[in-house]
Design a protein that fits this description.
Length: 261
């Protein structure tokens, strides 16, 4: 069982607004975070569980996790930023995970907008949800799922060939509490960059770890598929894709490496 007192004690003194709440089992950490917000309008809460039964990914996808093996949590907070900077928040969460895992000598990459990738397989994902009041955020929930000590062999056949875990890759178990503490401490630093208008720092750090830069990608958007060269991200966190000499700024899509058939 995850030791939430160890997590709370490990947070930097600069993150007093993060209060960790542990649930042995729940449906979704994002859903529970929103329920807490609806009841109290309080933010600065980290919802953590050892058994997420109905985790959600982007585009209504299900997020699969293994009880007491995965790291599943959601951060409920009120960033002092404008709505048009929303796209930077999941990128900041990805950077926080990169910066954490490098402390364990683990190098991962980021696939826009929200995937954590080891090698060619998915290690984790991020789901960002928000509520807006007068062009500013009243609250944001950043949900994170990471495969830490998961036994990938027991995952559903439909996904087990495309995902991995730290245990599978390194043949040992990792301290989930230590990883969570580091992610939260890194995340607050990155959120402050955004709040202070230092968008360039987020862009720069993300681009160091971003996948497919300079490559031809396929972007599945709500309005169709765009194929072009991935040029990077802008100060709003949007993907920049060059197609027929024009730069498309895309705020929501599924990015894939383009392979001609």
């Amino acid at each position: 069982m995850l030791d939430i007192k160890k997590v709370q004690a490990g947070l930097d003194s600069s993150t007093p607004e993060f209060t960790c709440i542990y649930y042995h089992s729940l449906e979704s950490t994002n859903t529970t975070a929103w329920e807490l917000y609806t009841k109290s309008k309080s933010t600065g809460i980290v919802v953590v569980t050892d058994n997420q039964q109905s985790g959600r990914g982007r585009s209504s996808n299900k997020w699969y996790s293994q009880p007491e093996k995965s790291l599943t949590f959601s951060v409920l907070f009120s960033p002092r930023i404008k709505v048009d900077q929303a796209g930077l928040l999941p990128l900041a969460a990805g950077i926080a995970i990169v910066r954490t895992l490098v402390k364990f000598n683990i190098k991962v990459r980021l696939k826009w907008p929200n995937d954590i990738v080891f090698g060619e397989k998915k290690l984790g994902g991020i789901l960002c949800e928000s509520r807006v009041l007068q062009e500013c955020f009243s609250a944001v929930v950043l949900g994170v799922g990471l495969n830490i000590n998961d036994e990938i062999e027991i995952y559903p056949a439909a996904i087990k060939t495309t995902v991995t875990s730290l245990k599978k890759e390194f043949n040992r178990e990792f301290d989930r509490e230590q990883i969570l503490v580091n992610i939260l401490n890194e995340l607050i630093v990155l959120i402050r960059y955004i709040e202070n208008g230092n968008y360039k720092e987020i862009q720069t750090q993300w681009l160091r770890q971003g996948m497919y830069l300079g490559s031809i990608v396929s972007m599945d958007t709500a309005n169709g598929t765009i194929i072009g060269k991935f040029k990077g991200i802008n100060q709003h966190g949007e993907a920049l894709v060059e197609n027929q000499g024009l730069i498309n700024s895309i705020n929501s899509a599924e990015m894939r490496a383009f392979r001609e058939t």
